[in-house]
């Protein structure tokens, strides 16, 4: 795809929403719409090429440990209750 993908994030992005936001090229970028389309396509392609060179391997343990954390559970509860999360670092 030659056009950048943009995620509009309002508040905390956790769980699946976090991964959707990370999959996008940019997060809360209204002024990007004003830029030249060919320049934006070139930036997107350059970013893709750089990203291909930096593959993070063997991160399943990191992801699992976060999904099993108390903070993750708090984040989900806060999201569902539409309140700010009270992070404890656990």
Please provide a brief summary of the model.
The chain has about 90 residues and is mainly alpha-helical. Helix content is about 50%, strand content about 5%.
Describe the structure.
With 90 residues, the chain is mainly alpha-helical. The chain has one domain (6-80). The chain has 4 helices and 2 strands; from the N terminus they run βαβααα. The longest helix has 17 residues, at 37-53. The N and C termini lie far apart (39 Å). The model has no long low-confidence stretch (mean pLDDT 85).
Shape: flat
Radius of gyration: 16 Å
**What is the end-to-end distance?**
39 Å
Question: Helical stretch count?
Answer: 4
Question: How many domains, as an integer?
Answer: 1
Beta-strand fraction estimate? under 5%
The ordered string of helix (H) and strand (E) elements is EHEHHH
Number of extended strands = 2
Structural topology:
Blueprint: E1 6-7, H1 15-23, E2 26-27, H2 37-53, H3 60-67, H4 70-80
Parallel strand pairs: 1-2
Keywords:
single chain, 90 residues, mainly alpha, 50% helix
């Amino acid at each position: 795809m030659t056009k950048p993908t943009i995620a509009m994030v309002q508040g905390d992005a956790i769980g699946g929403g976090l991964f959707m936001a990370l999959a996008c090229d940019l997060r809360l970028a209204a002024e990007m719409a004003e830029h030249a389309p060919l320049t934006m396509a070139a930036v997107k392609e350059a970013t893709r090429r750089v990203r291909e060179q930096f593959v993070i391997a063997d991160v399943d343990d990191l992801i699992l440990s976060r999904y099993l954390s108390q903070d993750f559970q708090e984040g989900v509860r806060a999201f569902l209750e539409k309140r700010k999360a009270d992070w404890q670092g656990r």
